[in-house]
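CHAIN AND CONFORMATION:
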Amino acid sequence: MPSQITVSVAGSERAVDQGTTAGDLFDDDRQVVVARVGGELRDLAHELQDGDVVEPVLVTEDEGLAVLRHSCAHVLAQAVQQTFPEARLGIGPPIRDGFYYDFDVAEPFTPDDLKALERSMQKIVNSGQTFARREVSDDEARRELAGEPYKLELIGLKGGSADEAAEGAAVEVGGAQLTIYDNLDRTGQVVWGDLCRGPHVPTTKLIANGFKLMRSAAAYWRGSEKNPQLQRIYGTAWASKDDLKAYLERLAEAERRDHRRLGAEMDLFSFPEEVGPGLPVFHPKGAILRRTMEDYVWQRHVDAGFSYVTTPHLSKEGLFHTSGHLPYYADGMMPELDDDGQAYRIKAMNCPMHNLIYRSQQRSYRELPLRYFEFGTVYRNEKSGVLQGLTRVRMITQDDSHSYVTKEQAPGEIRHLLDFVLGLLRDFGLDDYYLELSTRDESGEKKDKFIGSDEQWAEATAVLEEVARESGLELVADPGGAAYYGPKISVQARDAIGRTWQMSTIQYDFNQPERFGLEYSAADGSRQQPVMIHSAKFGSIERFIGVLTEHYAGMFPPWLAPVQVLGVPVAEDFDDYLRDVAGRLLEAGVRVELDLSDDRFPKKIRNASKSKVPFILIAGGEDRDAGAVSFRYRDGSQKNGVPVADAVAEIVAAVRGRIQV
């Protein structure tokens, strides 16, 4: 009789035979793809030890989906090397909603290649291969992978900091022990293998037909332009075919809402090649939208007790050494400019100059909180490969604010700012959100990227966490995501189709006041150091416009719409009548245009319907004789014979009331 061991399964102790695997505990549940054993994800083939605490991980959970997607990446790599035997392997991690794998091949993959690879993958999936984990020494791995130069390079990166050396490397060499996963056919023969930490699904059959290859693109090895350019294949994988179908439908809807396409169609903004990547220009209608947002947030800041300031776009380089940005954030800044031997930098942030304004005179505790804000345009040295329309740019205009407070005032100021932020998002129609608390990395090499003492970080983090929890909103941890100078709360908003966007941020900074020697005179006459609270309500006006364009699919609510009313006369005889109506709207502060083109009326109506203008006013003979207009709304509904005074009142009420229609 085999000896028995005791394990804990989902909170209940169970006696099992020695040699029992995690999969033996859940062999009747095909939804379980891996197990969490002692807090770590393990293959279902993992043999249990006495005292192990075991939890099932379902394929529908985030961790289960990540395992499914990484397993699908292995199937892709196997299919590529079967089809293109000369292909050398890079890295293939799971990512949000899918996976990718990098390959060194002679020619870029074509759409036909992807279709062929998808068919090969389906054959591998249907064959029911199993994933078998095998521990190897560094030397053994080098011998087995002698023909894979990129894998050989990864072996030298193994350990906890692998992802710092190469994106996605942790899935292959993130631990101290190297492992290779062999793909076995039904006879137990090894048909393929890959360097990998795992875990993996027990059989390729679990991938079923819930996967699809999406596209291919060029990608530099380890993200550096100095390295060879590889070919990256992106794919997606889901727990079922229905989940895949739903995801593809979401993508199609996202494509219809793409702000880059809508921006061109609606004549809002563009990205001229002559200007450069990541540097948008706003056309008249886009500039109206932007100015409306700026006017709104200006007044909100004034109402909240902020004073408006302006600062230059560049500064002597030494300022950013003082702030700590050059020592800790140099890669994100534009290269230096030389002025007869004096180095200057285009600013990547506004806070150092706000500190100089604070420091320009002596401060008393009676002045605190002291609040500054500006529409400060900053410039970031973003790599061209990550630029994405308005949502990832090199020119960022922030409604950037800084509050200087005593330590005792800090919690109240953060509450004040969080209420400000949430009210702003609601006014812009974003009312589904949660909070994320970004803290420093407590271990490994990343710890050196954060300045300040353990006590300062603990105190600052505790204050932010307390206020965040008081809000009653969901709070998600983001270890390692803090700025180098202090932790932050960010508001993560979900748009109309469920995508999450990081919007506003609130950061607690105990470092810059010390570096700039900021002080105030306390009530007892002593000189004390203030706490600095950074906040950006829009975050980036450019990014916010991009998000809103997609959230509303271009159909902005009346108060934001660049054109709020479009007048369409039934015939030329009614042009002057509609001009008079438009004049009354203009006097009321409404943005109105008239279609006085030579197009026939049916075409004008079709064009008007595509314009996404909130209100279309139509006038014909009956309308003119009655001193009225007919409304046509964006949903296709119509209301006829509305007296002009009532029409103006309805439109003005919708605009001033910020009605979301």
The chain has a mean pLDDT of 92. The CA atoms of residues 245 and 509 lie 45 Å apart. The longest helix spans residues 62-83. The chain has 21 helices and 33 strands.
